[in-house]
Amino acid sequence: MAVDYTVIVVYLAGMLAMGWWGMRRAKSKSEFLVAGRRLGPAMYSGTMAAIVLGGASTIGGVGLGYKYGLSGAWMVVTIGLGLLALSVFFSARIARLKVYTVSEMLDLRYGGRAGVISGVVMWAYTLMLAVTSTIAYATIFDVLFDMNRTVAIVLGGAIVVAYSTLGGMWSITLTDMVQFVVKTIGVLLLLLPIAVIKAGGFSEMKAKLPTSYFDPLGIGGETIFTYVLIYTFGMLIGQDIWQRVFTARSDRTARYGGTVAGTYCLVYALAGAVIGTATKVLYPNLGSADDAFATIVKAELPVGVRGLVLAAALAAVMSTSSGALIACATVANNDIWSRLKGAVRSTDEAHDEVKGNRAFILIMGVVVIGTAIALNDVVEALTVAYNLLVGGLLVPILGGLLWKRGTVQGALASVIVGGLAVIGLMAGYGILANEPVYYGLLSSLVAYVAVSLATRPTDEAVLTVWRERLAGRNPELASEPVPAHQ
Q: What are the transmembrane regions (predicted)?
């Protein structure tokens, strides 16, 4: 294992070194939070693919393949479809707004009064996303070093918090590019072909497994529909995803770079399902499907390759964890704290903006690590996060982009009614039930439409500013507070 350990240690040291390098570039708020809005197609595609394909997509995707066969790819497929839809239909307009958070977009569209409530919902989502990613370190470090769960979470979390705090989005972008390359080599080019060969090829896999393992819809239509609601729609509105869209240097980069990343997700989805299916042939009686990834890596890969593939799993977890962490800190500082204390935003070049956002990443990082240590059920935590995000924020965000008649009162009603409905239904049906997101989303839509139609249309002055910003004609307003209009 000495060679494997060396590979992992070098990888982790490289992450910290890039954090230090990124600190030298992050001199303004724009550079710290959105990498100066100047990523080109290659870096944009790589970092976008890295953030959406985390531990759940890698370890969880292989686990679903182990349990259901090729149809286990559907979870990651719906993530890819969401990223494709975002890139093709919305990313160019989002990038032109020149904002930092989803709540700032809602304020701009509706007139400056939707931010704090939507910010709280988005903060809860990004926090739980960061927590679930951080918990995944325990699985990987246990395979590597037989390490205590708490120590593993603190070690992995501390490295991510360190490089994220040092250089913000620049550090995260650089580390994500390395993680994207490591993930591609480790999972697609090494683990996938080795797993299939070890299982005897596809003919042997078909001979040894039930036919349901090769049914594209074997996982069930209702499950696929739920994945679409949670993950496809979640990709359209998550702060962690939008913050990456804000890093694109042009509309074209956001659209075509995101399309490449979404297509990559579809390939990655199929790879994970095939690896899981091959593992089922080799180890048919594992206690948990989530052990499939660690089992095949530990038992079937040669020395050195095993270290690289485990580094790939670590890369997948770290990319999602760091992206969720900076999103969580950005929302906490810009959408909640700054509004509650009535602070006036300074210009992008102000040093205290960088200092303040850096402090919030550090604080949120400590909160994330502490919560991850205390929490056991990853699936439930992630389900709560996505149910709140989709049930509370999908309708007012997409409504603002697509429906002129939507009002701030309708948006607030939608967030509150949808969020409370999701929470109540989770308490009644159970956290993992499908009904909370179904009925929560429906109630959010009804509240948005009904209240918007019952209230005065949005002030034309607000809509004029909104249209100008959508067209990219007023970028200088990006750092200015949005006025409230009666």
A: 6-23, 44-66, 72-95, 116-140, 152-173, 180-197, 217-238, 259-283, 303-332, 359-378, 384-403, 410-431, 437-455
Residues 325, 327, 331, 333: is their CA dihedral positive or negative? positive
Strand, coil or helix: 111: coil
Amino acid residing at 253: T
pLDDT of 291-314, one tens digit each? 888 889 888 888 888 888 888 888
Max CA distance (Å), the chain: 69
217: CB partners within 8 A, 6+ apart? 71, 224
Is 278 within 8 Å of 358 (Cβ atoms)? no
**Burial of 273 by CB count in 10 Å (0-12 exposed, 13-18 middle, 19+ buried)?**
buried
| Rounded Cα–Cα distance for residues 241 and 245 (Å) | 7
Q: What is the pTM of this model?
A: 0.85
Contacts 24+ apart (CB under 8 A), 75-78: 75/227, 75/231, 75/269, 76/265, 76/266, 76/268, 76/269, 76/272, 77/227, 77/265, 77/266, 77/269, 77/270, 78/224, 78/227, 78/228, 78/230, 78/231, 78/232
Question: Closest Cα partner for 412 from 124, 129, 103, 123?
Answer: 103
Closest CA to 105 of 453, 401, 441: 401
Tens digits of residue pLDDT in 363-376: 999 999 999 888 76
Encoded amino acid at 121, one letter: V
